[in-house]
Records
---
Amino acid sequence: MSFAPPPLRRRQFLTSTAATTIASAASAAALQTAKAATATPTPTPTAAQLRTMVPTLSKAAVGYIDMPHDGDVCGACIWFKPPSPGTTISHCHLVAGPISAAGWCQAWMRRS
Ligand code: SF4
């Protein structure tokens, strides 16, 4: 008695091949998007532009968390607003409400 694997049916073969092809295409598209994003730097806002900005995004909309993410923190982000003199509460030019200098969100951009 032998234990040879059952033959692959035509439908199984076509389904697995199509899934692999779709996954490869999706990965390639995601990589292209990431490369395009890094190849086109976002212009750094000027101090005057930052002063006129009104934060409108909710913390939930940008996935804000009260902790660092991969070593990145709000305090090193171009949108970060340090506490006003005499206060300890930080804010953001994009995200409404108080934030932590040690927090992070998906809109994070390194301050140069
Ligand atoms: S990481 Fe997000 S919440 Fe923090 S300063 Fe930057 S934009 Fe604002």
Note: Residues 7-41 form one domain.
---
Amino acid sequence: MYRIFGVSPETFVPTVGALLELIHPADRQSFDAWYTACAQGGATGELVIRRIRPDSSRRWISVRGSLTKRSGDTSGYISGTAQDITETKDIEEQNKLYATKLEISLMQTVDVITAIFEIRDPYTAGHERRVAEIAVAIGAELGFDAARQQGLRMAGYLHDVGKIIIPAELLSKPGKISAGEIALIREHAQAGYDVLNKVAFPWPVANVALQHHEKIDGSGYPQGLKGDEIILEARIVAVADVVEAMSSHRPYRPAVGLEKALAEIERGRGAGYDADAADACLRLFRDKGYQLPR
Ligand SMILES: [Fe+2]
Ligand SMILES: [Fe+2]
């Protein structure tokens, strides 16, 4: 213990006050509470504290202790162990930092893909980003945790990546399109899946791309899936996709508008669109003052 705390047994008297002096100020309160619980014979478990050495080096220390009493004694003493866990802690922190950097660079890569798409198809610029933001808001409204929300964001950004197979002239073609052209446009769902399925995302990004045009009643494409056969993330992105698309201008029509988009979601609630996702979307816009992302 003396070695771990960096003190000498000749000069250091291990009272609680003296120990507190050795501990990082931010950890003193928790150590004090832990020590008091120990002294009262309570269950204490592990406590991790930081020790700042006189040379300013920081050490992480794990302490465990319990009250030891001999029969007949009114008071006892605290016995326990202290373990230097600095190396493990440092590795943990490095891993956290690495994971954060990796997540940032992944998001930046996705931004690049979106930017390339916007050069090719400037008429729908911002569609993917806005769908992502609306989907995340719906997910949060439905109680998704941060990790699952991040998956929705990624899926929103990439749901139309399969549109790369559609010629740019068709994407921006004003006026009516033929049945053959509609069939080609519809292939973007499967094409997106084929590309994204090769990436080991920790979220169901490829399946969102595949299923975001499916409808709850089975009238969607490409597989005509029904209800729960469609993953929840895809049902959410489907709602976000319709709201964004109807609210935005397209080469073949002016913007329909948010109000009509919400009316469409309300009309199709439970038939075309997932009831919970639709309700969450309507609540956000109508009751909670959520604004369409710019
Ligand atoms: Fe799509
Ligand atoms: Fe879309």
Note: Residues 27 and 49 are 6 Å apart (CA to CA).
---
Amino acid sequence: MTDKISKEIHNKLFKDPEYLMRLLESYPSLFYLYDYKNSLPVYANKNLYIQLGYSIEEIKKFGSNLDKHLLHPDDINVVVINRNNTNKAKDGEMIESDYRLKHKSGKWVWFHNTVSVFERDKNGEVYLTVGTIQNITKSKQAEEELIESRERLRNLSSHLQAAREEERKQVAREIHDELGQSLTALKLDLSLCSSHFPDTPENKKVINTKMPGILKLVDDTISKVRKISTRLRPSLLDNSGLVPALEWQINEFQKRTNIKCKTKFIDDDSTLDKDMSMAIFRICQESLTNVARHAKAKNVTVILERKNGSLVMEVKDDGIGINESKILNSQSFGLLGMKERAKYFGGKMTINSLKEKGTSVKAEFPVDSE
Ligand SMILES: Nc1ncnc2c1ncn2[C@@H]1O[C@H](COP(=O)(O)OP(=O)(O)OP(=O)(O)O)[C@@H](O)[C@H]1O
Ligand SMILES: [Mg+2]
């Protein structure tokens, strides 16, 4: 801008009230001056009428009752807080709030209000405030849709987890019952057959050399079938509860990996919700699998305790630690799955890690304090 033009505009701004008025009216958002002491709007540009769908006369009729007529009942508190903050505000401080006003058509419109003190009376009390208001309905709708869609995804994920658990339970039962029973029957039949072979030296030789191996093979297969079935869905969890199931899991982990495990568990798990127990069991399983696969740890501590109205499960290792980027990575599906499981029960999961000092995975679930 040249000096000449700038001077010309400057002059108009200060000497021509109409020019100033036109500027305020053209301001591309709602601008207002408010008699804070008497709760009366002093001036609002035309955006007020445009945004709310009323004529100037209709708005004027509301007078100091604009809030009473147009404010969403759930947002009354927002306006009260806004007023309290304005009372305490320093000069130049901006106070922000979001609330809904009713459009003439009956629809609710979201607004973002930014206000600050413009003038005080001689006692220093706020007299006039000045502010701008923006229509944020579209971004609020997008925000609400995002929250709803997250909620839907969380429900879907939990539904899939539940379906997966149910399927595992059935497969585990079938493997255990069908395969396990057939193998046991096979073992009995084999023993029976061998005792019915004609008593010839040749038969004896075959029975003595081959039969022990065959029977051992069947025994090993039976125990493998049991292991597979238990790994799929430990019946301990359904029949005896979370703590025995965790003890079994940790014992298996110790045998498999040679990593030393210390445990500290609650005494009574009888009141725990079954689905929550399942979630805790799976979080522990995923954490221990991670320790075995990634941590290079020598020791692990698993704690299940009640703390400040929450049930807390922590798996701590003394391994190499996880770096921050892996914790935040949206592709870390194991960690994400654990977080989602905890969130579904209104809980949260936190991961703390120090390089070369190990990792702690802590899941907290709100439970009724007893
Ligand atoms: N206890 C741990 N110690 C060190 N690093 C870990 C630990 N747990 C997780 N990590 C790191 O965090 C990454 C993400 O873990 P996450 O469980 O999400 O995936 P993953 O184990 O690689 O694969 P999966 O999807 O099969 O679980 C791992 O690849 C590993 O680098
Ligand atoms: Mg993993």
Note: The first helix runs from residue 3 to 15.
